[in-house]
Structures are given as structure tokens and as C-alpha cells.
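Section handout 9: paired folding examples.
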Amino acid sequence: MSKVPKPVRLGFERDCIDIPLDLLHAATPFLPNLKSTTKYLQIRASVHAIGLVEPIVIAQRKEVPGTFLVLDGKMRLEALRDLEVKTVRCLISTDDEGYTYNKRVNRLSTIQEHRMIVKAAERGVSVKRLSDALNISEDAIHLRFRLLDGICSEVIALLADKPAPMGIFSSLRQMKPFRQIDVAQAMINLNNYSLKLTAAMLHGSSSEQLIEDRTTKVGRGGGVSETLQRLERELVAVQADTKLLEEGYGPANLQLVIIKTYIKSLLDNATVVRWLAKRRSEYLQQLQLIADIKQLPAK
């Protein structure tokens, strides 16, 4: 006889409702210095320009009936208070749990942000409104429109969901497509999307790997070029070795703990210790040294 499946318990109420801001309370006070951060200013500008896009997530406060605890959206709530809004659309959670919503947020990559802005413009959103919503200048919006100019389609696909900063694209733009792909793949393999790495690989590129404008702007002697290329290779090699060490440290440390625990259990057995002391005293000494390890040496 098949078991009857248990009904799925909803994590939220089915409908959003408008609640006065006076009834909403955060678990921790909002620090005044946060209002000067870039993130808060962008949220405030966006709420002012286009309103609240995502509802505030709340849960009922059991200790004070009729009031609510803010689970997600503390900055949006503070921005609404600054704008003197009286009520806000809320999504009510059925469980007041210690869950950090921001841990499940997928941040927009630079390329995804570019595509979002371009699509918004294609749908008739003005540059002025985009500027107000994102709290950046109109010139910055125009720069985002041209972000991928001169970038080959393979690199765009490789970096589409990667946390690559805007600055690296100006360096990639000075390279020919094959060199762009090499640099993008190196950044992905090293999990390093820094401006310094991109600049180092740009300066280490040969004249055949760069577009003509770049080679005419920079007159480089053969010795300098060779030195930069060698430094680039060494930098990539060191970062690759570091990456391998980071990946192997955890499993190796776990194996050491397991081995050390097992050896300690052997040395707690008097019969084993007597046998080792009589027949393999040199083994006993080494095993005792391993069992006494408190932490790995710094070098």
C-alpha cells in the first residue's frame, strides 16, 4: 500500500499585503553611517525613481501581537522611511526563522547588468530614468551601453556569469580575439578577475596579439617586452600553484586528523606500545611525534 504524501507546507502567505511602516521592526537597529554607502544610495534612488520592486519579507512578532519583524529588506524599508512613505507591500513568512536571505541571492554580473540596461533602453526607458534608478551618472550609463564593444562573442559567453569588474574590458578591448579568449580562460582557471592580472597579461602580450592602435601607442623595446612576458608567465604559474595548494589543503588536513586519531588510539593500547617498544622502537618514536602534533608548522 502506497503511503499518502504529506501536504506541502507553504513558507509564505499566498498574497502580499500593504502594512504601515510603523508596525515593522528590524531585529537590529539601522546604523546611521550605512546611509552614506553606495549600496544604500542606489537602493534609495531606485525606490524613489521606480518604486519598490521586491516586497519586504516579514514575520509576525509573537511577543508583540500586531507588529512584524523584518526578515529581508531592511535597507529598502529605511529608504521608504526617508522618502516618507506610509505603507509598504510585504510578503509574510509563516515561520520566524534565523534564515539569511542574502545567502541565496544571485548577484548580477557586469555583463548581465549591461544586458539589463540595454534591454531596458530598447523598451523605451530613457537614459535619465536609468540614471536616477541606478544612482549613477548619465555618462556612466552610456559607458555601460558600450561595455562590450570590441569584445569577441566567445569571451562574452565565458564571462557572462563571472564577477568580472568593468575595468577589465578596457584591457581586453586592446587585444585581438584569440588573446582575449586566452586571458578570459586564464582568469577563470585562476578564479582571479582582478584589474592587476588583466593589466599584467595585456602588457605581456606580443605585438601580434594586440590591435594596431595599441601597438602604435606603446613603443616597447624587445628587452622590456621579454621581461613583461616572463613576469606574466611567472605570475600565472605562481597563482596556479597557489590555487592547487588551496584545493588540496582541506582534504590533506582532514586525512592528517584521521591518521592522527587512529595512531593515538593505537598508542592507548598498552599491548601495542609494548610490542613496538620491544621490536620497532624507532616506529614508536615517530608515531608518538605524530600523535603529539597540535598544529602544522608555519613553514
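Moving on to protein 2 of 2.
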Amino acid sequence: MPVITPIGLDPSHPFPRVLNKSLNFAVELEGRDAFGRSSGAAIVQAPRVLPRVIRLPRELGDSEYAFVFLSSVLHEFVHELFAGMKVLGCYQFRVTRNSNLFVDEEEITNLRAKIQGELPQRHFGDAVRLEVANSCSEAMTQFLLGQFNLSESDLYRVAGPVNLVRLMQVPDWVLRSDLKFQPFNPGTPKALQKCHSIFDSIRGGDILLHHPYQSFNSVIELLEQSANDPQVVAIKMTVYRTGTDSVLMQSLLRAARNGKEVTVVVELMARFDEEANIGWATKLEEVGA
């Protein structure tokens, strides 16, 4: 199989390392495989490169918009992964791991290096919760709890998919505006609506921006104009969360390259944005900020 690798559990093939919140299937088996091995259980890890929700072609669905879960496809054809064996049950499960970074800021000399060292282990922290399909057999449930060193109080039986967040993308695929709320468009203060220079508007009086009800584009425009304005000599700001593709950070980089005195306090411990923030901090240092 190009992207699916079933793992039959036996002394030479121990339980695999399961990524945090990844979709997996526990399979109960009977019989012997093509190599004559008898394995009563196997683990199938859903490929991360495949979408969890698949839109069916019009000719395969009963309606214009028809969808199927990747988990349903795997359930239907899981027997093809175990030729010569009988599949007694197939149950999806997901484990949640402790994603805290264990960093003591008072006992280290280089916070950035310490965080970078901790990040690769985030997906393999100690398990804190196990979600299984409510149809999962008691024997398999106890087996999984034992593998993750969890107790019954950490077990959650789920009726249906173990991750409903994947359904968030479906409304974007359905072109039915009559079924959706009107999109919210953040406004722009009157003082900035027709101005060519934000600095001219600021000279006319203070401007209050209330996010997210008012557009953040005004802040981006201020930084872009500052980066190119020869009268701007310094930019100082604090950055807490940014994306990996941030227009704001690009403007700060351009300002530093243009000779501005750029000082940015970047929060390296912004939860789940540590890697992106470290990357931007490094880039800012490289251009002299």
C-alpha cells in the first residue's frame, strides 16, 4: 500500500508511537497472515497526507453535495490489508498527549535553544486522554488503556468520528449562501477611509481601532508606510502570535533592511506558536533588528 502501513502486533513488532491527536484504527484479527504469523491485533495509522473528509463525485452521490469520512473508507476496506486473516473488529481511536513544554526560564541561559530542543517531542508527550469508538470491544479498550498507561477515568467513548473539527471545512465546499450566515466584514474608521497617508490622518487626531470589529489592515498599512518612509527612524513593538506567513513580520523585516532601528519583543513561549515565533525572531536578528 503506498500510504497505509498496517502494523501487526507481536513481540518483534511492538505497539507504535502514536502521534498526538492522530487518527488510528485498532483491528482485532483471527488467523495467520501470509508469513504464517498469528497476530490477534494490529494498528492502522490513517495517513496524515489524506483528507479526513472526502467529497464524492456527482455520479457517486445521491445529491449534489455528498461526503464520506476517510475513516468510513478504511472501515469498509480494512480487510484487504490483512490477506488470509479474518477481521473481527475495527475501531478508530485517538490519544491526546501532554503538549506542555518543560522549560524553566530561571534555570536556563538560552531560552530559544531550550524551546527548540523541546518542540520535536511535543507530539510524543505523556498520554492524558484516550478516545475510542463506542463500538470498541472491552478487550481492545483495556489493551489500548494499558499501552498508554491510562485509567478508565481517562477514557472517552465516542459515538461517531473522534474528531468533529474536520467537519469545519465542509460548509466552504457547499455553495449554498441561503444556508449560511452573511460573512462579517470588519470596518475602517472614517479617518482612515480616504487617506493616502496614515501619518496625515494621525496628525489630525488620535484614532482608536477596535479589533476584530475593525480591520487590522490599518495596522499593516501603518507598518508598510513606516518601512518605506525616510522620516521614520525607529519602530518598536511587541509581537505575541504570528503565522508562518505574516505580512506584519515581513514589513518589520523590510524596515530593518531599509536602515530603520527595529526593536521587537517576540514572545517565544506563545503556546503552539513557539516554532513560528522562534523563526521570525531569528530572521529579525539576521537583518539587524
